[in-house]
Amino acid sequence: MQARGYSVTIQKLDPYINIDPGTLNPYEHGECYVTNDGAETDLDLGHYERFLNVPTSQANNVTTGRVYQTVIEKERQGEFLGKTVQVIPHITDEIKRRIQILGQSNKFDIVITEIGGTVGDIESLPYIESVRQLMWEFPDDTLVVHLTLVPYLNAAGELKTKPTQHSVKSLLEVGVQPDILVCRTEHHLDEAIRKKIARFCNVTPSAVIESIDASTIYEVPLLMQKEELDKVVLQKLGMEINAEPELKEWREFLHRLANPEDVVKIGLVGKYIELKDSYKSIAEAFVHAGVANQCKVELTWIHSETLNDDNVAKELNGLDGVLVAPGFGSRGIEGKISAIRHARENKIPFFGICLGMQCAVIEFARNVIGWNDAHTAEISSDTAHAVIDIMEDQKDLTEKGGTMRLGDYECRLIENTNIYEAYDSELINERHRHRYEFNNAYLKDFEDKGMVASGMNPNSNLVEVVEIPDHPWFVGAQFHPEYKSTVEKPHPLFIAFLKAALKRKTSKSLTKDMAG
Ligand code: GLN
Predict the structure, then answer these.
(1) SS3 sequence, 403-425?
(2) Is the minimum distance from the CB of 378 to ligand 1 under 6 angstroms?
């Protein structure tokens, strides 16, 4: 749709009761994604940005908690005086209002609203009811796409349409007839299956869209185009079907992704690695930056809890670069510090993000400056050397939800540093999610010993980036660059990190050749 010239945004409605996923453990729902305006959101918004290259905002993610909070606040203010406040119409009105907010900005021709969960869930009922009402209120401007499952039974060698039939029936029970069925499947849907689904589910065969497993998620738009999903949508919405878009750049991206010229091995050190979705944006940023460098990025996921000074050389053996991930709390922190020490001492390109940057500061304080007790105030409240300390405006906060330093802040970069070279720009904007910061009281001690602050917030003087100039590439960022990487705009820091890793790999093999 976007390639056809329409402006599009996507929003996610999550039926759970949390106000936002900011307070959820990543094991529950994967990474918490942060938008420019500082909303802590579902990780799907990361996909929306990576595909559309258009920033999302708080309005793009709504939860049941947020809906109820708004309605209850209104009730307390007397907005419904005299009335019984009920799911219908009060909760559904609030859901409908939030579905329409993005469209009312006049910025978008099409708003895609994704409802999380499954048809039949108790908690998604008010959302489906809201959709039913909207279809009646705006019959020409709405359509419903239902994502269904067409499982393949190996033993019978057969695709089964029953689950699709049943979920459409469940939708019909609550008054919603889908216009389009997108069918998740492991095998191609032949004409007969499509016709069967169409007949049982009251849709035209052209509205039965195959959504087959793809080798990469980035192939999906092309597969959808092949299925003519875009045309069916435009036709049903009565919108102009203009010339078939070529999607040239997207195809070029896929071509490069499938045909790398080199391989680079990166270790991702974190404590949530059992659930890879916890680091979704980082993994995707590596895909984008790999394509930009014409190389495949082989990620080795390393559990920080299992690392220590004795095994780190073995565990990180063969890696061309090490990334230490963001995080909270003490679990696994000493392993992160061991990994950083190894990368620093062995001149392996290192990239630390948020807690990863804070650990780099702690490691440097302990092993280079010589303050054995150096720590972050997040973990050790009584250390004499709190090189990472709580931010002033965080000290008196008691509420946990949405109170971190969140979203876009400016950062000024110092010339002749790795970070400046990566961005080729003096002023940058990046997204944040933290409560602790580099303790400026110690800045001079660090600079004297060879770790510099190469990026600072121009207003608060908060250290945003640290580097070690006497190292091939050692960069720690307080912000989260991964949130801004898209297919169209791979992130400059990830590109630069991979470049450094490739350089190390090449020089290592040259040394080997010469020795041979
Ligand atoms: N826990 C650290 C802080 O709050 C780092 C947060 C992060 O890595 N996102 O400052």
Answers:
(1) CCEEEEEEEEECCCCHHHHHHCC
(2) yes
